[in-house]
Amino acid sequence: MSMIPVVLLAFLFVSLNTEVTLASRCTGAPKPDAKPNLNQIYTSPPTFVKSVANGSLYYVGDGEDQINVVHLWGNAYQRGFAHGLLMQNKTMAFYSRVYPYFEQTFEKGINGSVPWLPKGIAEWIARVGLGVALDITYDLTEKYTGQWFKDEMKGLADGSGVDERTIRRVHMIGELTQGHCSMYGAWGAATATGATLQLRALDWDTDGPFQDYPQVTVYHADDDNALAVEGGQGHSFANVGWTGWIGSISGVSSKQMAISEIGVSFPDKSFGKESREGVPFTFLLRDILQFDNTLSNAIDHITNAHRTCDLILGVGDGKPQEDKSSAPFRGIQYSYSVANFFDDTNMLPKNDTWHAKIPQMVYYGMDWLCPGYSVVLHRQLKAYHGTLTPENTVKDVVPIVQTGDLHVVISDLTNMNMFVANARGEDETGPLKAFDRQFVKFDLKNLFAIKKKE
């Protein structure tokens, strides 16, 4: 443990390890004149650009909507080193921008002007400094963090030249912030083909540098059918995020599983307590992609985890379920105190006006208690019940609900296709929000089949 004053740790526990008592609601809602997304979906395969030992870079997408696709092989350190070497300039640029940006943002958040930043967190950081706050967060989570994350961050630092401590600090940001995001899981009779579909819409921060570095990072296992054990490679998975980022906020595994996540700013008392001592949720979500074979594995994983902050998670599984009556998707109420799993029969919060049940669908719009967005998401999903596809989700769900401003990932877990859009970059033109821009379609079977360049 680093030499952080005990008084600061005490302050952290007093201010953050507390029971939720408020149950206010978010007041936002989509614009009533929101328009469908009529952009043509890009379907051409990625184009090879270059390779290094244990890594290859491809590009996919048209012009300004181009996305980097990085393929990695080897052990954790080798993957990190290849990532850093292959994307050295972009990795250095990303970290040189993102850390100062967060320093400025946390200063602004003291007056409550940053929607995704809890005011109490901002005030605490103002007292101790962002670097100290992130180092404390790392110290509180370090013993719950798999060695493979530490090895990969070390490799990323060595390959890119970015300071390892900076990389580590940036990966702790998620534990201090709460993005307002949306998700759904839909399956069986709810979808056009009976496929299991999953939405992860990230509504976080389009003022920062993130949209300038969109990246799908594909981790390849030597033997994708080998038993996944902690410390090993696990299986192949696609991580949707940014250059130099190794945690998971969106992604799909070769085991036909996907993850979604929503930060909760408006909980009710059922969430109980939060804590900062446990596994960082971006590492937990990646572990699910990398090591879990089934939805049942993921449920056990989350149940037994040392959990931290208030979230809503989603986990879907496109494989046939052992219990044919069991839903292939779960929404999860997640906090230090609770891990509650919901399908279409027991979905909470229960509200027949703005969060009504839909057969073979689970959904959350922007937060736990967020009527304005949830009611519109319900309306759009119910309108497409029985005909829902990734394509009409692109066209008439996310742009009408106006969710997924930073990035959107829509997955067909049965047929292994993934649709991704990213917000407008700094020097780009067109709509700002990802949900209004062109989507790129990935054939995941082909993506996972890419071979290492010798």
What value does the Rg take, in angstroms? Answer: 20 Å
Q: Distance N terminus to C terminus?
A: 41 Å
Shape: globular
Order of helices and strands: HEEEHHHHHHEEEEEEHHEEEEHHEEEH
Number of helices: 12
Strand content: 15-25%
Q: Please, what is the average pLDDT?
A: 89
Which consecutive residue ranges, at least 5 long each, have pLDDT under 50? Answer: 1-22
Would you write up a description of this structure?
The chain is an alpha+beta fold. The protein has a domain at 6-15 and 76-174. Helix content is 30%, strand content 20%. It has twelve helices and 16 strands. The strands form two sheets. It has a ten-stranded mixed beta sheet. It has a six-stranded antiparallel beta sheet with strand order 13-4-5-14-15-16. Helix 2 runs parallel beside helix 6 (147-160), helix 4 (119-128) packs across helix 5 (130-141) and helix 10 (371-383) packs antiparallel against helix 11 (390-401). The longest helix is centred in the N-terminal third of the chain and has 21 residues, at 88-108. It is globular.
